[in-house]
């Protein structure tokens, strides 16, 4: 009896390893949530120039991308548990470097190696390995629901983390001045790394790459860890790159900036708006799993995104502040539903030993493709073309939806194939 079957027999729809992954995700994204808010302000309080602040943030992104590539290539060989523990140790080291260091070269080192996030999102190497592990902690029928919980946990933890950034004022009232008021948050980040290492160190051998069937022919070596599914991964990466490039025009910081320029919202109002955004998007992820079980992963991905993209195009056309906020929150209630379904679909249609590489390649493609779009949005804002980024992003995302549905509508995950075969037999 497999571990998954054993847990199902005991009434557990996902294994203790899955629960440890979810707990580590909560801790990690809580830290990412407040670091994304305070990191630039902390660097400025240290006396760093805007160019130096930009250099540290860019180095953080470069370090995340590098670690994701290396994890994709080596995690399955070195061991997924061992790699996740090592990444947790790097979190601790990065937090301590930022808490104690003032020199630019030391901050750049901590940024590159500290497994941090400047966006509040968890799209780094740990997320890549988690995606490969989660399908092995549950059944095919419950895989998408587990990815929904995984994504929801991250969204809600990041939202709470963003609120935790306000403790800077508390430390200032205790007598810590300037940059010193920020330092305790980096100590907390280091402790999060310790907690993650302890949690993930308890993962079992069941999280590692499944052993190949002795009766199967030897697998070809493949490219970057992908062999039989190379064509699928290339097409997914190109399409996800298009989607991420479109999304880069309307990342959270730029949408907040748009609300400031167009409707003059205060920081307090923006904080409340984006906290509500996090709650709505988190709640919608529970619905995503149910919809996918009924209509299929690809259809759920595409047909929840089409109305979301229409609302994105309509947002800059709203004639009042209240209506603009209502349109934004309406979009929040469906805009994230493609994330768990996309991750579940990716892991379902490739071979088990290709999952880490697939998650890494598609994550890097998304990160790289979305990097240039914010610069173009900034230019549009500078010439008062405030609606252009929303129109362009929405239109490109519709194109992506159409292309991915046409390319993959005949490729079904195992549980959907079984349902189709059962229906045909019936």
From TrEMBL:
Q: Which residues form the Major facilitator superfamily (MFS) profile domain?
A: 17-412
Annotated GO molecular function terms are: transmembrane transporter activity
Q: Which cellular components does GO assign to this protein?
A: plasma membrane
Q: Which InterPro entries match?
A: MFS (IPR011701), MFS_dom (IPR020846), MFS_trans_sf (IPR036259), Sugar_transporter_CS (IPR005829)
Gene3D superfamilies per UniProt = MFS general substrate transporter like domains (1.20.1250.20)
- The organism is Acrocarpospora macrocephala
Q: What is its main location?
A: membrane
- Give the membrane topology, semicolon-separated if more than one: Multi-pass membrane protein
One Pfam family this sequence matches: MFS_1
Q: Which domain of life is it from?
A: Bacteria
Recorded hits in SUPFAM superfamilies, A to Z, give:
MFS general substrate transporter
Q: Where in the cell is it found?
A: Cell membrane
Write down the PANTHER family for this protein, in alphabetical order: TRANSPORTER, PUTATIVE (AFU_ORTHOLOGUE AFUA_3G04000)-RELATED
Keywords attached to this Swiss-Prot or TrEMBL record, sorted alphabetically, are: Membrane, Transmembrane, Transmembrane helix
Name the residues that span the membrane: 26-47, 53-75, 87-112, 156-176, 271-289, 310-330, 379-400
> What is this protein identified as?
MFS transporter
Decide whether keyword 4Fe-4S is in the record. no
């Amino acid at each position: 009896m497999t571990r998954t079957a054993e847990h199902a027999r005991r009434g557990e729809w996902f294994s203790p390893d899955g629960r440890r992954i979810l707990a580590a995700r909560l801790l990690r994204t809580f830290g990412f949530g407040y670091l994304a808010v305070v990191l630039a302000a902390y660097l400025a309080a240290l006396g760093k120039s805007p160019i130096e602040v930009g250099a540290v943030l860019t180095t953080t992104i470069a370090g995340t991308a590098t670690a994701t590539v290396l994890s994709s290539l080596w995690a399955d060989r070195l061991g997924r548990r061992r790699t996740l523990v090592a990444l947790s140790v790097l979190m601790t080291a990065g937090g301590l470097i930022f808490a104690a260091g003032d020199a630019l070269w030391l901050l750049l080192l901590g940024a590159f190696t500290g497994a941090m996030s400047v966006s509040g999102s968890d799209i780094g190497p740990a997320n890549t390995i988690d995606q490969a592990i989660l399908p092995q902690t549950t059944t095919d029928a419950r895989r998408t629901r587990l990815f929904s919980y995984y994504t929801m946990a991250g969204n809600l933890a990041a939202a709470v983390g963003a609120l935790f950034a306000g403790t800077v004022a508390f430390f200032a009232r205790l007598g810590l001045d300037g940059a010193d008021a920020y330092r305790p948050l980096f100590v907390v980040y280091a402790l999060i790394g310790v907690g993650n290492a302890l949690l993930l160190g308890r993962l079992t051998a069941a999280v590692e790459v499944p052993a190949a069937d002795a009766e199967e022919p030897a697998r070809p070596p493949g490219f970057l860890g992908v062999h039989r599914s190379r064509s699928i991964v290339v097409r997914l990466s190109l399409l996800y790159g298009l989607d991420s490039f479109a999304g880069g025009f309307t990342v959270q910081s730029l949408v907040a900036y748009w609300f400031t320029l167009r409707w003059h919202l205060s920081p307090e109002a923006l904080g409340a708006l984006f906290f509500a955004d996090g709650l709505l998007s988190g709640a919608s992820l529970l619905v995503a799993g149910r919809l996918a079980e009924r209509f299929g992963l690809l259809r759920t991905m595409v047909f929840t995104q089409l109305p979301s993209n229409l609302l994105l195009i309509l947002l800059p056309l709203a004639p009042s502040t209240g209506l603009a906020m209502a349109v934004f929150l309406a979009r929040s209630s469906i805009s994230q539903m493609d994330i768990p379904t996309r991750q579940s679909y990716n892991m379902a249609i490739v071979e088990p030993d290709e999952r880490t590489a697939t998650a890494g390649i598609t994550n890097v493609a998304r990160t790289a493709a979305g990097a240039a779009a914010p610069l173009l949005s900034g230019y549009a804002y500078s010439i008062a073309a405030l609606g252009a980024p929303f129109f362009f992003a929405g239109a490109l995302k519709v194109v992506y939806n159409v292309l991915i549905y046409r390319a993959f509508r005949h490729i079904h995950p195992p549980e959907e194939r079984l349902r189709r075969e059962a229906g045909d037999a019936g």
